[in-house]
Design goal:
By secondary structure, the protein is of the alpha+beta class. The protein has a single domain, classed as Roll (Thiol Ester Dehydrase, Chain A), CATH 3.10.129.10. It is built from three helices and six strands. Strands 1, 2, 3, 4, 5 and 6 form a six-stranded antiparallel β-sheet that branches. A hairpin with a 5-residue loop joins strand 5 and strand 6. The radius of gyration is 20 Å and the shape is globular.
Length: 173
Amino acid sequence: MPIRTGWEGRFLEDLSVGDIYRHPLGRTISESDNTWFTLLTLNTNEAHFNAHAAADSVFGKPIVNSALTIAIVLGMSVTDTSYNAFANLGIDGLVLTTPVYIGDTIYAESLVLGSRESKSRPYGGIVEVKTRGLNQDGDIIMRFKRRFFVHKRDSEYRKSSFPEPSTPIDSDD
């Protein structure tokens, strides 16, 4: 039986200036997501985990930890833009424009701003994208520019990490 490859991501050759990618997955943020992330990162601002204190804030209820929201939006962009990257080079102009609340669903889209071959590493190049996150109502919650080094399709460093099975798969398993 032939082995068919799944999604292998985009490579330097596939990322052209002007391309827009609407990343395919939305993510609803739960209270446990927000609480766990806040605890994990030692963010002690009670606006994220104390409903009583947050009720007296300008928002009137807990807001989602912005570092979590940033991580989710950036993560959403990986499938379409930096799946084959090996290094993030920078994030610029990060702006948080609308608060995110528990129960909001986040989406993301990216615009390719620049793409060039590396002068020092011939197996890849540098890509710049502008990414923005939106909530379920289409309100922009954040935007930022990101640069990363991405492999070319024929890169010598691009190898599958899938282990060779000790026995082949068949329909009797």
